[in-house]
Design brief:
Layout (H helix, E strand, L loop, with lengths): L6 E13 L5 E13 L3 E5 L6 H9 L6 E6 L2 E2 L5 H11 E4 L11 H11 L4 H14 L15 H12 L6 E5 L7 H16 L3 E5 L3 H4 L4 E6 L2 E3 L4
Length: 231
């Protein structure tokens, strides 16, 4: 594999700004340029408001940069339309949202199955994969429950399983252990580490020191910029 092919994520002069109600411009991200190799475990850390979630949203194609470029898995996402980005996310990325984003009217199994149905996988493939994922996150006995019948930690584990449904090359997780007790946080970290060992690229935003211990690369953000630990 060439050096270029070994890059899973590449950003160049990435910037994200927002216009707030009084017309002022707020900088979310500024001048981010970095490469993330395939198969690496990356932790994005920094205080609240530093741009961690904004960066994950741009890397997944959920949000668009104001300026600069972002490439994921060899694809330049800059300027792509929503249909392309939706298909790309479903095929190549898995996102664990901090707010879970589960569909309240679907059962646990149906929430996890949804990305696979988008790709028109067979019912047998879906059933087998859902069962595997529920076991991996310790929720095999919750498949017919609705999100409202689960604790916050259980909902987060369902969101994690859904993100892995289509076996994506890139996993993005926004504070994935934030609402979990130590036992279940350890379970999720073990799954993330196993994914990395299988060659997946894992990018996690977190405040948790224990997650940083798993990192090959740590990107620290402050006020939307990459800083060193001394800054």
């Amino acid at each position: 594999m060439s050096e270029e092919e070994n890059v899973m994520v590449r950003t160049k002069d990435l910037e994200k700004t927002y216009t707030v109600s009084d017309g002022k411009t707020v900088v979310g991200l500024e001048d981010l340029t970095f490469d993330i190799p395939r198969g690496s475990f990356v932790v994005i850390c920094g205080p609240s408001g530093s741009g961690k979630t904004t960066l994950l949203n741009i890397l997944s194609g959920i949000d668009r940069p104001t300026k600069g470029e972002v490439q994921v898995n060899g694809q330049d996402l800059t300027g792509k339309d929503e249909d392309f980005l939706a298909d790309f996310r479903c095929l190549h990325t898995g996102f664990v949202f901090q707010a879970y984003n589960l569909v309240s009217t679907l059962t646990v199994a149906e929430n996890i199955a949804f990305p696979m149905e988008w790709l028109r996988k067979t019912p047998q493939e879906i059933e087998t994969r859902v069962s595997e994922l529920l076991s991996s996150v310790g929720l095999a006995d919750r498949e017919n429950h609705f999100p409202s019948q689960l604790s916050g930690g259980e909902q987060q584990r369902v969101a994690f399983a859904r993100a892995l449904a289509n076996d994506p090359e890139l996993i993005l997780a926004d504070e994935p252990t934030g609402n979990l007790d130590s036992k279940n946080a350890e379970r999720i970290l073990k799954v993330l580490q196993e994914l990395k060992e299988k060659g997946k690229t894992v990018i996690v935003s977190t405040h948790e020191k224990q997650v940083r211990e798993f990192a090959d690369i740590v990107i620290t953000l402050k006020n939307g910029r990459v800083v060193t630990d001394s800054e």
